[in-house]
Amino acid sequence: MKRFGPPHVIVTDLLRSYGAAMKVIGNADRQETGRWLNNRAENSHLPFRRRERAMSRLRKMQTPQKFVAVHS
Q1: Where along the chain do its domains lie?
Q2: What is the tens place of the pLDDT at every residue in 11-41?
Q3: DSSP for 32-71?
Q4: Contact 22, 30 (CB under 8 A)
């Protein structure tokens, strides 16, 4: 913020709550929403989502049993 100043455009998802929040703080004119505009933000979460998916597999009871049966 010090170096480049406030952002000219704020890219968000198409969720209606973002638009409502932007109206409250007075940035509704700076908000851009679109189908592919938020790709950079979403792609940065991919490694985390991959880990979440792996952990959710282990939470199911049958998956560890299958894993142990195959690798024993």
Answers
A1: 10-71
A2: 888 888 988 999 999 988 999 888 888 787 7
A3: EE-SSTTHHHHHTTHHHHHHHHHHHHHHSSHHHHHHHHHH
A4: yes
Q: What is the pTM of this model?
A: 0.49
C-alpha 41/C-alpha 51 separation (Å) is 17
Q: Report whether 22 contacts 14 (CB < 8 A).
A: no
- Please give the structure tokens belonging to residue 6: 């406030």
Residue type, 35: R
How far apart, in Å, are the Cα atoms of 72 and each of 4, 39, 40, 44, 64? 57, 42, 42, 36, 12
| Distance between CA atoms of residues 55 and 67, nearest Å | 13
